[in-house]
Amino acid sequence: MDTQFLVSLSIILATFGLYIGIAIYNTAKQTSDFYVASRGVPPVFNGMAIGADWMSAASFIGMAGTIMLLGYDGLAYIMGWTGGYLLLTFLLAPQLRKYGRYTVPEFIGDRFNSHPARVIAAISTIIISFTYSIGQLSGSGVVIGRLFEIDAKLGTMIGVVLIATYAAFGGMKGITWTQVAQYIILIIAYLIPVIFMSLQITNNPLPWLSYGELVGKMGELDRELGISEYFAPFTNGTKWQFLALMFTLMAGTAGLPHVIVRFYTVSTMKAARWSGAWALLFIGLLYLSAPAYAAFSRFILMTKVAGSKISELPAWTKTWVDTGKLQVADGNGDGILQWSELIISNDIVVMATPEIANLGVFVIGLVAAGAMAAALSTAGGLMIAISSAFAHDIYYRVMKPNATEKTRLNVARLSIVAATLLAGIIALNPPGAITQIVAWAFALASGTFFPALILGVWWKRSNAQGVIAGMLVGLAVTLGYIFAAKYGGYTILGIIDTGAGVFGATAAFIANIVVSLATPAPSQKIQEEVLDLRYPEQMVYKNGEVWMNDDATKSV
User: Fold this and answer.
1) Which stretch is the leader sequence (predicted)?
2) Average pLDDT value for the chain
3) Contact in structure between 60 and 499 (CB atoms under 8 Å)
4) If exposure means fewest CB atoms within 10 Å of the residue's CB, which of 47, 71, 74, 119 is most exposed?
């Protein structure tokens, strides 16, 4: 065994031991522990947990690679994901926390007083979270496959066992504190390589300021090679695709059930807002670094790898070729590796860059541990969302309302294991790149939950029939467009499968509004509950007036 393998393995095993230890120490003993961590998480730590939950394998592993390969067009991912977080923090999170439920389907079921709406929301949660989890498990396979120099498929199954173990043990309580640890590990692992690359290439330790120096140099290289310029806009898709993808990611962010549920783990509306503020800071550290990571990686590949003799390629190329994620072929037979002959998956750019830049075995091991932290943290949150949707919203709230707490916990844990295994099997042969699969999950969330939640919180006239019609139409349109674009080659204005959410959300809003207006209005009680969500917790809307929550005898 070489030194790099031993160092990487030691760091990853140490972090795995930490995660499982935290999960066991914080084992959920009751359902409030399992679903909302007893609503006792401080905002700053909840912000870290949200950051870890949010910065999935797509963010850590896939995003810099996507930007490296797409250039300007890849910025839609950063702008969409970040902008969506603002929508969620200001328009939905505090209001949903005030309503005081465990899950998004439970909010929809109770807000619209409808079991069918609850079941449709629960099924949508399972579909969205399941799709998202396939990308995470695929990412864990990339990391483990590289570490052990085995096929990524076997690495995926190892990840399945780890996720199923610690998610089933701790529930939301264990997941929360595990995610705090995972955030710290993943952000350190992401920042150290990009800072070192910045020092290597520009002699400046601040990559956010220094990578702009490479813009002109890479433009010259692109022109020499006769390829489209890295910073030229809309070279990999139309302007409409860029805007549609950005909207899909923004609306999907505001409707993702596994992210929204994190705001249920704090004690008050104010704490929910502060959680969002802290999370935005923690997320920004990685998102502002991804374009720099992409630029440095591309520059090193273009100047130090492309143009080399095939027989003298660095050792790291062979180990990545063995994972199936890198292809090196001398197409013209001249013995020199041309840029066009280097086919690198965007899923391995972050993982491979420390080796490409020769940053040392410790940094390589640290990045591997960070990538696993990103994949595991999000996968854990997704499995809790799937478990909650089935065990709480379908099994307990609809099928078995008299089930004991012990039975409910057992059903929740079993559903986590089953969902993880099934997602892992599909992730063995994923239907797309990590960022593409994740974009589908966001499209589904933007077509189902975003319209349902926005209208549910901000339009008192929205009723059960409207929300059911909106979710069903949004889900059908989004899925239909994804399949038509990916497998049928059908597009509108050049918008491909990853931008499908713009059509799903539009259709869902229209269906919800039209059907709600064509059917009877919700009860006065429900309409007052909706208006009440707009006021701080110390106030309550009652009988057409706003009152102090602790004294309903005095009007404010």
Assistant:
1) none
2) 79
3) no
4) 119
Cβ neighbours of residue 358 closer than 8 Å, sequence gap 6 or more: none
pLDDT given for residue 13 in this prediction: 79
User: By the 8 A CB rule, do 172 and 30 touch?
Assistant: no
In CATH, what number is assigned to the domain containing residue 105?
1.20.1730.10
Q: Is residue 299 part of a domain?
A: yes
545 vs 329, more confident: 329
Q: Which candidate, 105, 136, 109, places its Cα nearest to that of 122? A: 105
Give start and end residues of each alpha helix (H) in 288-404. Answer: 290-300, 315-322, 349-356, 361-387
For residues 58 and 131, is the Cβ–Cβ distance under 8 A? no
CB 100 within 8 A of CB 226: no
Based on DSSP, count helices (H) and strands (E) in the chain, helices before strands.
24, 5
For 323-334, the pLDDT digits (tens) are 666 767 766 667
pTM of the model: 0.79
Q: What pLDDT, on the 0 to 100 scale, is given for residue 545?
A: 60
Structure tokens at 46: 């909840």
Does residue 436 belong to any structural domain of this protein?
yes
Residue 250 lies inside a defined structural domain of this protein: yes
Both tokens of 247, joined, read 């909207």
Residue 32 has pLDDT above 60, yes or no: no
| Predicted pLDDT at 551 | 47
What are φ and ψ of residue 315, in 5° steps?
-60, -30
In which residue are the tokens 């929360």 written? 176
Cα–Cα distance between 452 and 447 in angstroms, integer? 9
Which residues, in sequence order, are CB contacts of 319 under 8 Å at separation 6+?
A: 146, 149
- When divided into structural domains, the chain yields a total of 1
| H or E stretch covering 214 | helix 214-225
Q: Are 436 and 498 in contact (CB under 8 A)?
A: yes
If phi > 0 it is left, if psi is from -120 to 50 it is alpha, else beta; for residue 523 that is beta
pLDDT band at 543 (very low <50, low <70, confident <90, very high): low
The reply to whether 452 falls in a domain is no
Amino acid at 176: T
Query: In this structure, what token pair is assigned to residue 280?
Result: 């935005």
